[in-house]
Amino acid sequence: VQLVESGGDLVQPGGSLRLSCKASGFLFPYYNMRWVRQAPGKGLEWVSDISADGSATYYLDSVKGRFTISRDNAKNTVYLQMGSLKSEDTALYYCASGANQFKSLGQGTQVTVSS
Questions:
Q1: Cβ atoms within 10 Å, residue 51
Q2: Are strands 77-82 and 57-59 parallel, antiparallel or unpaired?
Q3: What is the DSSP string of 3-53?
Q4: Pick from 28, 39, 25: which is nearest to 108 by CA?
Q5: Confidence band (pLDDT; 50, 70, 90) for 106?
Q6: What are phi and psi of 16, to 5 degrees?
Q7: Bridge partner list, 82
Q8: Per-chain mean pLDDT for the chain
Q9: Among 29, 36, 26, 33, which Cα is nearest to 75's?
Q10: pLDDT surpassing 90 at residue 87
């Protein structure tokens, strides 16, 4: 399982970003995918899951209505559209795959929300 996250940036409160995670090394269309994050000085926090066919999505309560997870199985890529960003969303964001029980992460992409 190889995962490469991108799209993180410094953004002002209320702004938007779209994160991408390019996957390889497994049959992407067959597996659920996940986004997790780690804020400075804290542990990993689950953010969102999407089913293999994209028909089911799940969100951390604090991001519901602001974040949208999606996937393009033709491109082996999962996305996280983030809106109305808050300072508490500042974290290193990772994706993970159900192909290995969400055990391995990519290098992460940094999202910093600050004015």
A1: 14
A2: unpaired
A3: EEEE---EE-TT--EEEEEEEESS-GGGS-EEEEEE-TTS-EEEEEEE-TT
A4: 39
A5: confident
A6: -130, 155
A7: 17, 67
A8: 97
A9: 29
A10: yes
Going by their DSSP bridges, the two strands 33-38 and 44-50 should be labelled as: antiparallel
pLDDT at 110 over 90: yes
Q: How far apart are CA 35 and CA 48, in angstroms?
A: 5
CA distance 53 to 29: 7
Cβ atoms of residues 51 and 69 within 8 Å: no
| pLDDT beyond 90 at 62 | yes
Q: Exposed, middle or buried, 33 (CB in 10 Å: 0-12/13-18/19+)?
A: buried
Mean pLDDT across 41-56? 97
